[in-house]
Amino acid sequence: FPALRDFVKMGNPVWGTCAGLIFLADKAIGQKLGGQELIGGLNCTVHRNFFGSQIQSFEAEISVPEIVAKEGGPPSFRGVFIRAPGILEVGPEVQVLAEISAPSHTSTKSDSAPESLEENAGSEKKVIVAVKQGNLLATAFHPELTADTRWHSYFLKMVNETSQEASTSTSLLPSEDLILSEKPKYDLPII
Fold first, then answer.
1. This prediction's pTM
2. Residue-wise burial string across 48-61, b where 16 or more C-beta atoms lie within 10 A, e elsewhere
3. Which one of 79, 139, 164, 177 has the minimum C-beta count within 10 Å?
4. Which H or E run contains 86?
């Protein structure tokens, strides 16, 4: 965990899906007794298993305007939610990339006390399921389980932008001191 925290703090691109989203969050609720260690870095509060147990896993069409603007394609993405977390709160520096309507059995309170959304009839509750903060990308669903590669392309462009920024900052060095025989390789953690 210390190495992963350092990796995130250094500004490296990281994409957390499902459990990876939980690990990247600064705060997680709905955990087992004793909680779990977090990597942090993403200014949000996540509710672990927000959408319920394994048997309540589902697929849903998600509106993805940012992904469409950057990657093209249809206006929605088929999200695969497997015992998925939900993002309850985000800080001002966090960009919300996708939300969906919360099923009636879920809770949107940021404490561990459950509250039925049916009590709030008349106002449709949304839950955040994808965010970006700097070089951190997080999704509550599993894009890797679909044939739609737009999220992957979006993340690879984040990695490329980071590598270009890094090479621009090193271009201040005298050219004879900087000899690269090949493109730099980035070892990105998979979480």
1. 0.78
2. bbbbeeeeeeeebe
3. 177
4. strand 86-90
> What CATH number does the domain located at 18-103+124-155 have?
3.40.50.880
Q: Residue-wise pLDDT tens for the chain (191 aa)?
A: 899 999 999 999 999 999 999 999 999 998 877 778 899 999 999 999 999 989 999 999 999 999 999 999 999 999 999 999 999 999 999 999 999 998 665 544 444 433 433 344 445 789 999 999 999 999 999 999 999 999 999 999 999 988 777 766 655 544 444 444 455 455 555 55
Indicate the domain borders of the chain: 18-103+124-155
Distance of CA 146 to the CA centre of its chain: 17
Neighbours of 130 (CB within 10 A): 27
Q: Which amino acids are annotated catalytic?
A: 18, 142, 144
